[in-house]
Amino acid sequence: MAKKKRTEKDAVSSTRGVASLEEAKAWMAARGITEIECAVPDLAGVGRGKIMPVSKFLSGPTMNLPLSVFFQTISGDYPPYDNLVDSVVVDSDLVMEPDFSTLAIVPWAQDPTAQIIHDAYHRDGRPVELAPRQVLKNVVDLYAKKGWKAVVAPEIEFYLVEPNVDADYPLKPPIGRSGRPEIGRQSYSIQAVNEFDALFEDMYDYSEAQGLEIDTLIHEDGAAQMEINLLHGDPIVLADQVFLFKRTIREAALAHKIYATFMAKPIADEPGSAMHIHQSIVDSETGKNIFSDAEGDPTPEFFSFIAGQQRYLPAVMSILAPYVNSYRRLTRDSMAPINVQWGYDNRTAGLRVPPSSPAARRVENRVPSSDANPYLVIAASLACGYLGLVEGLRPTEPLESDAKGLDFELPRGLLEAVAAMQHSDEISTVLGPSFVKTYTAVKQTEFDTFMRVISPWEREYLLLNV
Hints:
It is a single chain. Strand 1 and strand 2 (47-53) form a beta hairpin. It contains 14 helices and 14 strands. The chain folds into 2 domains: 8-127, Ubiquitin-like (UB roll); 138-431, Glutamine synthetase/guanido kinase, catalytic domain (Creatine Kinase, Chain A, domain 2, 2-Layer Sandwich). The strands form 2 sheets. Strands 7, 8, 9, 10, 11, 12, 13 and 14 form an 8-stranded mixed β-sheet that branches. It is an alpha+beta fold. The mean pLDDT is 95. 45% of the residues are buried. Its cofactor is Mg(2+).
């Protein structure tokens, strides 16, 4: 049957995404859009870009930003450019091209406003190898060349906290509709979620308006800790959705005078927040899951994918846990993993195989923290599985016992993780040598910034005792 031709009416009625500049004109005219936010995700997953009148965007939809946006640390500093890039080149303009499939409204804006995600290109047309969205595209292309297509489903945990305007004070759970802050453990409690019904109604409305496909909302183990699960799909589409969702829940929370935070360990005595990634690989032509054979049994490819994650996840740990704070989550006395053991429905292991039908057989990577850049964390996780597939690796035996009783197999801190990435030729090849070199330099600079801060622990135990 011939494919039905897309009409302008179809484009105008679309909640999210159009196919071209002409469709974008009609889409924005139908909604009375007056401004548009043009964003490109940086290494931290922060949206950098410009806000401009729609008339300016439609007259020339590309924008220019300097290469330095991909060198900026989370604190706004920059690493030394020696051996990375010429100091003149780093401030030269790149060409940012809009991806019209990401066009959506900004539902919390006061005036009719749209938003669109851009890709970064050098002026000669080459994709910018440092851009996180391009890093993910490159990994997806590696799968495509083998006749495969990756499918992912992220789960993102976050905390709701009282507004904190002084960083010297610890975070506290917010006041819900009952007038009391949450205490104790409220895992999976519907009543605890209901405490913030008005906030979550706004979140759902904002998400629906942007075409973000939320699967489920649950209360996690920590006080006012929540988890959002997104529907499975294409890695780039899902990374875009996580990128947009983080901003969406922050905006919904701010409207209710609450902060939403994706810090990996925001509160000392509460559990950390993760970004679990469910992963499966399908045949590009048939759409069948290559992790299952015709009889429904696991295939050699399934085990090789797991083995690749076991071998290479430690080398990409600085992506999965990108900040000093991230490693506070990975402790033996928590549900966060400390190694790369795997097991069937074993949540104490870094790699879990959830119960499923053969068609839905998948591997859940439980190592990443919620502060990670979604583009980079999905790219890194899939890169590890890819290496396992092409190298024909074999995993350890599945673990049935508690993995917490075993040794640490993951880096314990940021500098150790950076060194692991720098020493992995395989990861450098898959993610790109220039990306790895720049990313690790940024992480080292962030660590240097952290070391300039004196912590309360140091004042508590060292001030009068040493």
